[in-house]
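Retro notes
What went well: the complex prediction finally ran end to end.
Inputs used:
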Amino acid sequence: MLAFNNDYSHGAHPAVLQALVDTNMEPQPGYGTDAHTERAKQLIREACQAPDADVFFLVGGTQANATVIDMLLAPYEGVVAAETGHVACHEAGAIEFGGHKVLTIPGYEGKMHAEDLENYIQVFYENESYEHTVFPGAVYVSLSTEYGTLYSKAELAAIHAVCQKREIPLFVDGARLAYALAADECDITLPELAQLCDVFYIGGTKCGALCGEAVVFCGMHAPAHPIPRIKQHGALLAKGRLTGVQFEALFTDGLYFEIGRQAIETAQTLRRVLHERGYQFFLETPTNQQFVILPNEDMARIREHASIEYWEKYDDTHTVVRFCTSWATTQEDIDALAAVL
Amino acid sequence: MLAFNNDYSHGAHPAVLQALVDTNMEPQPGYGTDAHTERAKQLIREACQAPDADVFFLVGGTQANATVIDMLLAPYEGVVAAETGHVACHEAGAIEFGGHKVLTIPGYEGKMHAEDLENYIQVFYENESYEHTVFPGAVYVSLSTEYGTLYSKAELAAIHAVCQKREIPLFVDGARLAYALAADECDITLPELAQLCDVFYIGGTKCGALCGEAVVFCGMHAPAHPIPRIKQHGALLAKGRLTGVQFEALFTDGLYFEIGRQAIETAQTLRRVLHERGYQFFLETPTNQQFVILPNEDMARIREHASIEYWEKYDDTHTVVRFCTSWATTQEDIDALAAVL
Amino acid sequence: MLAFNNDYSHGAHPAVLQALVDTNMEPQPGYGTDAHTERAKQLIREACQAPDADVFFLVGGTQANATVIDMLLAPYEGVVAAETGHVACHEAGAIEFGGHKVLTIPGYEGKMHAEDLENYIQVFYENESYEHTVFPGAVYVSLSTEYGTLYSKAELAAIHAVCQKREIPLFVDGARLAYALAADECDITLPELAQLCDVFYIGGTKCGALCGEAVVFCGMHAPAHPIPRIKQHGALLAKGRLTGVQFEALFTDGLYFEIGRQAIETAQTLRRVLHERGYQFFLETPTNQQFVILPNEDMARIREHASIEYWEKYDDTHTVVRFCTSWATTQEDIDALAAVL
Amino acid sequence: MLAFNNDYSHGAHPAVLQALVDTNMEPQPGYGTDAHTERAKQLIREACQAPDADVFFLVGGTQANATVIDMLLAPYEGVVAAETGHVACHEAGAIEFGGHKVLTIPGYEGKMHAEDLENYIQVFYENESYEHTVFPGAVYVSLSTEYGTLYSKAELAAIHAVCQKREIPLFVDGARLAYALAADECDITLPELAQLCDVFYIGGTKCGALCGEAVVFCGMHAPAHPIPRIKQHGALLAKGRLTGVQFEALFTDGLYFEIGRQAIETAQTLRRVLHERGYQFFLETPTNQQFVILPNEDMARIREHASIEYWEKYDDTHTVVRFCTSWATTQEDIDALAAVL
């Protein structure tokens, strides 16, 4: 079965796995105090050109979002997200489980507009009864978005400017950051991203690791006592080395960026194939996710040979599906898929 | 200063206050086990023609919404509301404080449409990944709505039918129920309401009491152990008599309904005055709230003589304001307001 | 039926009720912005000789404890209480509902010892893994305690000194403060109390009001945005006048202190009667609660004529019960009880 | 540096790591729906002789405790634990973060007594005001305990009998289950454990895996919709294969039990060495943790060569420390430690 349904269908990039093998029998202290975690933090600070950043490793995306957002917000605050944001609709209520509301504004192919954000905050404070409503206390965007789209540097800077004016931290979910940074259309570098927001995370799970997301507090320091906050969320690994070793490998010799490039190359081939076969795009993106409208019988037929992701119902006879590539996708996989299509 | 800003600007209806005076020196047991609370429950069951209903008295509207919704929902469930619903936007995150998401669908002058609700739930279950999203576990509507509008019997029945088909309880926020039931356009009686939903509350704070909302579980029994649930929300009065005595008075000799009629009569006069003076309605309603678009200088001038409620900015020179009547509004108040206008 | 089971069995002190009657038809703005609430705050600041104090009115004791403690604590912090503290065992988990742990130390007739508190905090920080445990973030004591006992000025000062050394706020639950301050053995005045802690509340529900507790931030300012915090807990009254008017009355002409004296006088007579009748005290206290060990048949017999409170099982044939007086208890009530005993 | 401070200082058992290597490039579906997870569940059901058990894989111990306890409890319920239980004192408030109180009873070398549990529950229900307190809704024990001690079969059966009588689920934290089952003094087998409780987890992190705990609902089915519950806790791995593959390896050819035996053998040698060197035991246990009272200078000296865990202050000149072995401890390590001692 070909795997095009998501970007987490394989294990770890071989170099990441090898690092786990190489370090396996070293004794290391627990809870993220090991040498590999320390070195991974340092490598990430260097890659971000953010020497003072506070870096923490969490296990997965929903966990990272719920933990970071809870750390950023006062109890009377919520997080502003596009209505299509992962925290708004795909996390089973993990943000609310922590007591916070997700405040939504319109999403345009997965992205929020700076003007909508500015307007939302302005209307909030114009309301004479604003103390009876949830304060906008942080802003959440994803790069790339849940729809595979990208913010341009100007767009992100405009959102950041609104946040700075209102003294609200900007949090960037980088679950698929490798695939964003590697896209031809992306005009943001990792060091620039660290300048354009207050905290972000570098996705590992979907970008070459077995698990793990590296949270980087770049425009602010981590709130007081991050360790108990993280542990309270059930997010502190006893064997912190598990994420430390993997991110040490990902940020050695530019592996993280190489992983991004591999997935983007196969994604470009995939787009060409989908066009050649005449498929109708629901959304064609510069990153590793492509959204296509399929007749239901086509979807069923393809699924006999390749995993593809149900996205949403289009109409009674058509479905929107997602094709994904990852670091593990090969040109042979694309050829095989082309044969199926 | 004339008070037209809301329906909670006076104390209690004189008959309600007299009941507090009359019973003041009776010793009564605490926590809602007193004789007046018991009799109030019985009177409410009779007025609702719901002899098996479980009735509880809470203190205020946000508290009632947060407590009831928390009692209705499993942890993985959220409550569906119109985007303008009180629980969605005017409760400072009280629902989320309890761990639950408010799931929003479009609001039309404060009301949801049964078709939108049905569609929302259908799309939820069609999603192959629905277990990663928040389950619709209850439906919240308000009667009258935050915009003073009313569901017709047919509209509410249609929403209830969707809920019953999906086995989701329907909860009606009746903070202003007296004013809804008394409206000429209202084709729902209290006993009918008890048939048209699973739980609702009869608003006291805005309808003649000093405080208090009577929660009525009519289409279902209260979930297990309501007392600790209520206490956990900080909502259990030691002197439960405070709400018991008031609701006993409100449901003696039809006082609750009389209170509604008084407010509706003055509201009708108010509407006529507003029309006569040529004001532009933002929303003209059959109940005790009227929404008018005022030039900002008019708003400022009126506010020198009468309290009116900021609702939202209309444009740079106009504001939407709310005029409210209540049981305490007199025809003299309307005349005085007319003079100001 | 005589009422000796608790101190909330009657309505409001007549002067408090009269104030509600007198102000009933005044239009006032909502949510605690009315003139009576403002004046009540000012009267309380004067009575406390704390001109800069932030004062808020909440509805009941559990609600006040849960809301204030939540406002004082960071998410990684818990509140330290005696193991018999109300927040530790009689609030149905309201503190934990807000996400916080109650950290317990020994209670001696309801009181904590400063040395135990100091030791608890010292052991906490000596632990090399303290970041894996809940931080002591506030200290809770009650005055009078759940057992009717009193802290002396020296005892409370010692606890306060520990808190100041550790920079942890001290919170005093004054649900029965009137009865504490009025006791002969009490060597603390209200202004002194305001110097001896960081925040406390002046109990209304059990001390002459229909409902209401006045939270006084005296040694610190209220944390940011108290209104949404309070509303989030479902604790913001639309008719804030309800508590404002009552506390205005309670702090006019020394009524609150007079209420305390009345209850203490009847409590002293009660103690004498219990001694005369030869009852065995479980705990004899200087305030309005007395704890007696009764043979079970005596308890049953007394309960035919007077409400008394089950406290705990003593042995298979005896039960500890509580006798309470309040402002509403008369010498005639005591005489009638004496006849029953 | 020798590592005796804990049982999570190395990576994975080589066979577990090899399984990750061998399966790395297989495409597998996400979120625990992969073939390895399915097979691991089946192997665990077989090892437990519990063919109907519901099995889920979580990442770490605190996460497993917080998620399972939250799934077991109604909102008005707390979990009963020994005062030394991990959930009571070493999880940074993760249980309370989920809204639940930990109800504590005495711990004796880490263990609760069935009589204390029975007495606690009986006193709870004897209290006429029990609805104002937190209901005992589940019971938590650990095997082996935080102090390395073991419940005998009779002791656990007695606790289970109390739970069954009261219809409260019994949850066993098996973070160190391999080391418990392998101890000479242990008279409980894995299938017997599955009969003696309602839900337990098989610890992976401390027993040979990089991460992962296998939760087994054996005496009851998992509550409704476990996937969103787990995701809400941030505990659902996108690459569920990570835990599936590891547990598949751990339960192939008895590896999990072999891992336990290795650690127990080195622990026995360690005990002998500590005795030979004349060290004073704080607690000598049949499992992989030994607690010793060290003069502070000895602790400092040993720590130059070997990691050992601070446990608690003994007196001003002595400290209680923990020596741990694990599957990764070799006889050579013990010899080297002996040289240091």
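What we learned: The CA atoms of residues 72 and 266 of chain C lie 37 Å apart.
What to try next: split runs per interface for comparison.
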